[in-house]
Amino acid sequence: MTNNWKIVSTLVLLALLTVLTPVVSEAKPLLGWFTTTAYKHDVSHYDPWYEAHYAAFFNGDYGKNQHFLGTGGDAATAPYSGGIAAWDWYPPTWQSRLLTPKTWLIIESWRGASVASNYEATVFH
Amino acid sequence: MKKRFLSSMLAMSLILSIIIAGSAIALARNQEQPVSPLAQQVLQRDDLPNSQGYYAEEVTEDRFPGPSSPVNTPLQAEGFLEGYEASAWHPYTLQEEVNEELVKDGQSGAFVLNVAYKYQNKSQAEAAFEQQIAFFDQKLPTDFKVESVDYDRSLATANGMYGHATRLTYPSEGITWATYWFLGIKDNTLMLLMVDGLPDPATQEVFDSLVTIVVQR
Predict the structure, then answer these.
(1) How are strands ordered across the β-sheet holding A89-90?
(2) Which of A27, A77, A81, B93 has the fewest CB atoms inside 10 Å of its own CB, making it the most exposed?
(3) % of residues, chain B, pLDDT over 70
(4) pLDDT tier, B147 (very low <50, low <70, confident <90, very high otherwise)
(5) Given CB atoms, is B135 within the 8 Å cutoff of chain A?
């Protein structure tokens, strides 16, 4: 093979890599359990119709091992609905939203109670 | 020699074409999806300058699971095309002493939720609006209070919008809460604004300032 064709082959390979790179970067991670922080804190649902329930939303299902990373850590959540370890996941089928008690949010907002990145959990993605 | 030069040039042209095409594909994939015009009708980040956790996204039919409410019913209504929401936590200092005692240094806040729902035509938007209003006409426990709230109706009318503003005060988790609602219609779009916090003048101030923005969208 001549030197020219070696260069051409290398460049073709590089060109193909350029084309394929975005496909690779968009691929979903392999299935498994991940520990991550919530991507948003928002209204989850209403029950009854007038009462908003709030939650930390995670990119993944079957949430568990939740922790509060804000001021005071998990211990600060203890007076509210049994503490963060006892807080419910919603909806019951997917369990992708960690419900955050309203009193906790209103009274302890100075701790960063409504900041999504202050909630960490292990989810299946 | 000339033939070899031409074949090299041809190969280089081919490679350049692949690189350019690949770059174009990569660029196109990295571009954000076209943003719905509805996204411009909900509260923008600049409308909530002191807020935390501003988040805006398209609303799907399963966004608000659970029992029927003024927020998820419009997603099931006839003619529903698309929805978009913006939400944020709006921190403030409480103004009334009775509420200040609940929190450290009077620091609290209110949740803000703004949803826009688009329908195929105006009559369908009006039908969804009537379904929303019906929730507030329901019989509620005696310790609940539903009150109409004033907003600048002339400003709303000038912008082609009409609606209904309500304050619902109710007890939950040992605390009294105040939730402000604005439900409005402009052409084939239904607008919902909810401000949820303690019954304090600071909560109403947040609602008053935001409803003024919403009725001008």
Answers:
(1) A40-46, A52-57, A97-100, A89-90
(2) A27
(3) 84
(4) very high
(5) yes
Closest-CA residue of B relative to A10 is: B15
Average predicted confidence (pLDDT) for chain B: 88
Query: A4 to chain B: which residues are within 8 Å by CB?
Result: 4, 8
CATH of range B37-214; options 2.70.170, 3.40.50, 3.40.1000, 3.10.20: 3.40.1000
Residue A19 lies in a domain: no
Q: Is residue A28 included in any domain, yes or no?
A: no
Which one of A1, A50, A97, A108 would you mutate to disrupt binding with B, by most B Cβ within 10 Å of its Cβ?
A50
Structural domain total, chain A: 1
Query: What ipTM was assigned to the predicted interfaces of this complex?
Result: 0.83
Greater model confidence, B118 or B102? B118
Residue A45 inside a domain? The answer is yes
Residue A123 contacts residue A33 (beta carbons within 8 Å): yes
Q: Which residues of B touch A109 (CB under 8 A)?
A: 89, 91, 103, 107-109
What domain range includes position A50? Answer: 33-124
Positions of chain A with pLDDT lower than 50, given as ranges:
22-28
Query: Is there a contact between A55 and A39 (Cβ–Cβ < 8 Å)?
Result: no
User: What average pLDDT does this structure show over B41-61?
Assistant: 94
Residue pointed to by tokens 């302890």: A108
Contact B18/A15, CB-based, under 8 Å?
A: yes
Rounded Cα gap, residues B96 and A60, in angstroms: 41
**pLDDT averaged over chain A?**
87
Which residue of B19, B71, B168 is in closest CB contact with A18? B19
